[in-house]
């Protein structure tokens, strides 16, 4: 019995954060000419107008910031394939800031963040009509995944759950390398 199926159609990748595996999938799909698009929270376009302007206006300050921004960039990912939902990261920052002080607000922000990304993903799926959705998170579970089911779009959801201590060590290293960006 053949357990593997070959899908030759276009693939939409969705990942709200900068997971290396998602970037690798996007690059591989692009090389194979199968990438329909990449939906993420923030993506840095190194050659974009905003980056060019910032380099001209504040070269030294921007150089420090660009080191952080480059975590959300890969030269092999075509900028035209990327769609962003920047409010996702903004709401994450607000959640981190008010987390312990205002837990109810934090829950509302988390829900709103997730619902906004999910709604955008559903609209993107409806417009792009990929053969496959590769989601590196469950943020599409309320609208996007049911839409895929209705449209017959094959769906792969990649959820990574690691040891909490490993995550804390990783966050500590990230904080040490970029204290302005990773405040805990």
Number of separate helices = 7
Please tell me how large the radius of gyration is.
Answer: 18 Å
Q: Give the strand line-up of the largest sheet.
A: 3-2-1-4-5
What percent strand? 5-15%
Sketch the topology as an H/E string, one letter per element.
EHEHHEHHEHEH
**Number of β-strand runs:** 5
Give the end-to-end Cα distance, rounded to a whole number of Å: 51 Å
Overall body shape = globular
Which residue ranges are poorly predicted, with pLDDT under 50 across at least 5 consecutive positions? none
Residues in helix, %: 40-55%
- Helix and strand content put the structural class at alpha/beta
Rounded average pLDDT? 85
Biggest beta sheet attributes? 5 strands, parallel
What's the helix and strand layout?
Elements: E1 11-15, H1 20-31, E2 35-40, H2 49-57, H3 59-69, E3 82-84, H4 87-98, H5 103-128, E4 132-135, H6 144-151, E5 154-157, H7 164-177
Parallel strand pairs: 1-2, 1-4, 2-3, 4-5
Helix pairs in contact: 2-3, 4-5, 5-6
Q: Can you characterise this structure?
A:
The protein is an alpha/beta fold. The protein has helices at residues 20-31, 49-57, 59-69, 87-98, 103-128, 144-151, 164-177; strands at residues 11-15, 35-40, 82-84, 132-135, 154-157. Strands 3-2-1-4-5 form a 5-stranded parallel β-sheet, with helices on both faces. Helix 2 (49-57) runs antiparallel to helix 3 (59-69). The mean pLDDT is 85.
Which features would summarize this protein structure in a list?
50% helix, globular, alpha/beta, 5 strands, single chain
């Amino acid at each position: 019995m053949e357990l593997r199926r070959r899908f030759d159609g276009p693939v939409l990748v969705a990942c709200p954060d900068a997971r290396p595996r998602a970037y690798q999938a996007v690059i591989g799909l692009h090389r194979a000419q199968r990438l329909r698009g990449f939906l993420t929270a923030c993506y840095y376009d190194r050659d974009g107008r905003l980056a060019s302007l910032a380099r001209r206006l504040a070269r030294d300050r921007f150089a420090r910031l660009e080191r952080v921004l480059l975590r959300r960039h890969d030269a092999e990912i075509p900028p035209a394939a990327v769609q962003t939902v920047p409010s996702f990261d903004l709401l994450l920052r607000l959640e981190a800031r008010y987390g312990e002080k205002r837990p109810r607000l934090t829950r509302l922000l988390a829900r709103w963040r997730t619902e906004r990304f999910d709604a955008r993903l559903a609209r993107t799926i409806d417009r792009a009509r990929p053969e496959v959705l590769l989601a590196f998170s469950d943020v599409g579970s309320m609208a996007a995944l049911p839409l895929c089911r209705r449209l017959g779009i094959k769906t792969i959801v990649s959820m990574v759950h690691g040891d909490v201590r490993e995550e804390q060590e990783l966050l500590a290293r990230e904080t040490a390398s970029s204290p302005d960006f990773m405040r805990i």
